[in-house]
Amino acid sequence: MDNPVALITGGAKRIGAAIAHLLHQNNYNIVLHYRNSEAEAKHLVDELNQFRKNSCILVQANLANMQEVESLALQAIEPWGKLDVLINNASSFYPTPIGETTETQWDDVMASNIKAPFFLAQILAPALQKTHGCIINMADIYADKPLKQHSLYSIAKAANVMLTKTLAQELAPDVRVNGIAPGAILWPEQDKLNESSKEKLLQKIPLQTCGNPNDIAKTVLFLIKDAPYINGQIIAVDGGRNLTI
C-alpha cells in the first residue's frame, strides 16, 4: 500500500512497456492501460505480477470515448486509493495527407494525443495533488516542425506541448507537469521504409543511431524522482535530431 502508483496509457508494448518495466523495477505499482493490444497487455501484467504480487492491474479503454476515459481515471485510483504519476503515453500515429484526411482520423488522433490527456489530468488532478505527484506527457520533436504527410499528428503534438505548459502552470505548486519529445526511438509499426531509407534518416541524426525505449523510460524516471524543480519543460530525447530538422 505504500508503493507509489503510476498510470501509463498505451502501456502494453513499445515505449509504454519499457516505462512500465522500469517504474515497476523501482517499486511502483502500475495501472496499465491499453486499447487493442490485449494479448501484449495481459502478458506484461502477468509478468510484472509474477515478479511482485498484486502490483499491476490492467484497464482497457478507448480514449476517444469520454465515458471510458472517466472510468479509466476512477479505476486507476481504486486499487491502492491514490495516484502518484500520470503518464500520457498513448498516441495514434499514421499519415494523414492533405486531401485524403477524414473527420474520423481527426477525432482519433486528437483523442489520444490531446483530448484524453487533458481530461485525465483534469479528473486525476485532486488525487495527484494529494500525493504531490506529477504528469508526464509524450510530445514529439515534430510538434515544432511538422512531419510531411502527418499534419494531424503534428498539430496534435503541438497542442500536447501547450497542454504540458498550461497544466504546469495551472496545477502548480502541488503537481509538476513535463513532457518528453522522442526522436528516432522505434520505427513506426506500419513502417514501410527500406533499409537504405532508414540509413539516410539516421545520417540526419547527429549521433547517427536510433535510440532505445529505455532512453525514454529512464527520462521518465528522472523527471519523477530526480527533478523536483523542473516544471513545464519538454525534454527532447532524440540524439540531436531536432537540431537538423
The main sheet comes to:
7 strands, parallel
Fourth CATH level, the homologous superfamily: NAD(P)-binding Rossmann-like Domain
- Strand/helix succession: EHEHEHEHEHEHHE
Low-pLDDT parts are none
Mean pLDDT: 94
What spatial form do the alpha-carbon principal axes imply? globular
Question: In CATH, what is the class?
Answer: Alpha Beta
What structural class do helix, strand and pairing data support? alpha/beta
Count, helices: 7
CATH topology: Rossmann fold
Taking the alpha carbons of the first and last residues, their distance comes to 46 Å
CATH-defined architecture: 3-Layer(aba) Sandwich
Helix content, binned percent: 40-55%
Taken as a percent bin, the fraction of beta residues is 5-15%
Q: What is the domain tally?
A: 1
